[in-house]
Every structure is written in C-alpha cells, then in structure tokens.
Amino acid sequence: MKKFTLSIMCVCVLAAGAAKAQQVNNSGFENWENLGAVTEEPNDWNSFKTASGALTLFAQQQIKHSTQTRPGSSGTKSCLIWSRSITVGIVVVANGNVTTGQINMGSSTATNDSNYNITRTAQPAFSETLSDTPDSLVVWVMFKPFTVGGTDSARIHATIHDTYDCKDPINTASLPHVMGEATLNFATTNNTWIRKSIPFIYNGLATSPDFILISMATNKTPGGGAGGDSLLIDDLTLIYNDASINNFVSSKNINVYTDANELVVSLSYDKQVRSDITVYNVLGQQVYNAQVNTASTTKHIATSSFQKGIYIVEIKNENGDRFTRKVAIK
Length: 330
What we know:
- The chain is 0% helix and 47% strand.
- The protein is mainly β and 330 residues long.
- The chain folds into two domains: 8-239, Jelly Rolls; 251-329, Immunoglobulin-like (Sandwich).
- The strands form seven sheets. It has a five-stranded antiparallel beta sheet, with no helix packed on it.
- A hairpin with a 2-residue loop joins strand 19 (254-259) and strand 20.
C-alpha cells in the first residue's frame, strides 16, 4: 500500500540523448511494508491483501519480494506475483495481480465487470499521479507458466488518464477519460529475465495526463492460466525520448491507413520538415523505419512480410512534434 505520493522529477541520460523523466514511485520494488508477513506489499503498489469488494474475505497472499533481480541491477529485490486456485463455492483461478491502484474483488466469476483494478484519485494509497506523456514503458520480467509448454501469456497494461477513477479493464464510463495506453501480452520467458519495451498509444479522448494506472497480471485473461503461474517484475521505467513530448502533430498534417498489402503514410506540412517514420509491432519491436525531409510525401510500406495483428505507426519531426496511430494488418 502506498504511504505517500511523491512525484520525482529528474533529468536522465538515455541512449537517445537527454530527456526528462517523471517516474513511478518504487519502480524498482526495493521498498516493502510488512516484509516477511502474508500482508507484505511493495510500497506504492497494491495486491489482493489491500483489495476492496464483496470477496475480500477470500483474499490470500499472492505477492512477495524476491531476491532474484534482473541482470545488471543495482538493487536487491524484485516483485513476485503468482496465481492461486481458490474455492469460492467453486474452484477458480485467481491471477497474480499487482497495481498502482486498488483491486476490487466483486465476483467469483473472473470476467464479471465487478472485478477490476481502479485508480482512486482521492486516495494517495491507491493512485499514482502523473503530469507528462511518456513514449514507452520499459520493465524486466520473468514469466513462468505452471503448465510447461502451454500457451498462456502474462499481461502488462498501463493507462494514462485524467482526474477520474479509471478502471482496468477499461469500461464505457472510463473510456472518455483515457488519454493513452501501453499494453503487452507475453508468453513464457524460459526462466530468463527479459527486458520488455511497450509503446504508449495516444489515441484516447482525454487531454490531461493526471494519473497512470499500471496493472500487471500472470494471465492476459481474467481467471485464465493455472494456479502456480508466476511473474517476476523488476525495474520499471517510463521512457521520454523528447523534452517536447507534449507536442503532437495535428492529424490534418498526417494521414495513415492500410490499403491491400501496404501501409500508406502521407505527410503534408506548410514547409520542408525532417520526419522519422517508425512502425512497431505490439511487442514494441521496430519493423520499419525511414526518414524523409520534405514538405509533402506519401510512403507506401509493403506489409506482405508483416504478421497479422496490431501495429503502431509513430511519426516524429525535427520540431519535436509526435504523432501515433494504431493500425490493423489483416
């Protein structure tokens, strides 16, 4: 449980150069309360032991610190969450779950909409304030499904939203308050720490990045997987690649769409501008990059070699402006 809210403003030197970086509190999971007890939780993060809802009586320990840390870490702890099979009239799988908000346990049916994580904006213990718009979220993970050789996937989801008690999964009431999201589902990491980079997609209706709700779970599907699935988490970082990250290219200057076996990107400025066009898959991996220096151009990007799925198109120009668009390759 969070004991206080502290917004950290610092200047970090990243691979891409100097950048400002407002970070999540206790993002290295070094600080814990009730250490060694079944109620232990990382400071500024929450799990089932601090949940709300009608079924909190059934909450069990599904989080603790671990001394396994990611390669090159200067810390001594990481966060371990795991799934349990729990009897609440019937046997259900309670996914391991850690969040910057609060878990609500409302139903024994895992997919019921009364089960969610929520930012409680009026309660510092269950909210994480923000004032910037990061490019991506980077985190180290080690995911071990209990079923060897299975196809289960863990999940990381971050929502940047305005001053509203936003829920994850996002419901119709929360949707107008969402500014951007970063989402990643990932399979076993084969007993190895893996660094995951997850881009934020800013296509929401909200315009004010007041809070961030981060949720990490042992399965992408509520109630999915098996008791004994485990996820280790270490050194979560928000990445800011440009000090002018709040400047967005107006959509009237850019048109992005798919056509047959290609992705079409059209740029139209009132003067010559140098722009970088980058395409990422849902794993945050770059699949295309090109630089243009012109006032107007149309790029036709062949997608025949792309796997079917969701891709993110990002355009940055020399003025520090940025545009992102989510597209589906079918």
